[in-house]
Design a protein that fits this description.
about 120 residues; mainly beta; Rieske Iron-sulfur Protein
Amino acid sequence: MSDNHLTWHKVADYIHEPDFAENQIALVSVNGKKICIARVGESLFAFAHKCPHAGGRLSEGYIDSHSCVVCPLHRFKFDIRTGRNVSGEGYHLKSWPVKTDEEGIYVAMESKRSSWFRL
């Protein structure tokens, strides 16, 4: 995906601002959409709030030792860096780039393309 179609959205002023649970996952709202932010050490990762298999709330799952989020419903595992399903079921978890700088934490999402065009 090209950066030309991404819009960066500020989600927090600093790394400790999101309300991370004991599982190191915080639920945040970005552009009107609920997503998860996971903290692994000092790195942050953004991914979909619901499991693509059965809609389990991934904010209620956990991050394993391989940086995979584990769904609390059926234990499906997804690499939080890529969204790849690593437990073999073939699903893909939506994920987004995260960047941090001195002004805050940002998540990039696809820009909505205008339906207007020129002939």
